[in-house]
Each structure stands twice: as structure tokens, then as C-alpha cells.
Design goal:
alpha+beta; 7-stranded antiparallel sheet; 7 strands
Length: 144
Amino acid sequence: MTKFDRDAIASMIPHQGAMCLWDTVVAWDAASVTLRSAGHRAPDHPLRSDDRLRALHLCEYGAQAMAVHGGLRARQAGGRVRPGMLVALRGVHLHVARIDDLAGDLECVAEVLVESDDSQQYAFRISCDGVLLAEGRAAVMLGA
């Protein structure tokens, strides 16, 4: 498998700099992607407030995992990444209150549930050291 590091990930998603939340693609296929990140511990994380990074922000990690998967699939097909807009979050369960105090890396598995020409729905699960932190579903409308 070709290694996809932070620079490769940033080339596939609209988020740049510190807002590119994933560090590496661990594995992927047409149906799912697994990513890893250590950035949640950074004191200058762009989503921190009141010196904390709340678990709610794991929804953004999940959405970016979807975007990375779309980018990987587009690259494999020889096409360009279509821009997307997050339109819904469903069934989100946060199992912790914050994530900046976690010593291990975050790991996300995002899986395609349903897709059409204009939209996609994914399930995502984010864990740290084997402990589930957040899970849910997200829907994206795709642009031209």
C-alpha cells in the first residue's frame, strides 16, 4: 500500500495547516478508511477552547475521514475530489468529555453506508488505545 502521510492527506481535503486533523492513512479500500492522528495533544490545536479539546470535535475528525476517503477513491479512479458539504450528523454518541488529555493516538474507521451521484453517508468510529471515544453517522452532499 502506498503511504499517505499528512502532506498527501492535505492535498486531498480543503482543510489546511493545523485544521488538517489526520496524520496518516493506516489502511483503506473502496468501502472504508482507517486513519491515525496525534494532533489532539497539541496545545495550539485550532479547535481548543478554554485550554481543552472537547469530544464534540471528534465529529469534525469523522467528517475529515470521509473527505480523505473520497480523495483516495478519486485518486485511484484518476479523477478529482468533488467538494462536499456536511449536511447531517445522526446517532452520534460521545463516550468521553474531552480528548486533549489522552496519551495515545486517535484512530478512526470510516465506512461508506450509502452513496449516490450527489451524496454519501458514512459511519465513523473513533478510538484511542482500543477505547471507543465517539461513533456516529454523517451525510455529505457533493458539489459539481
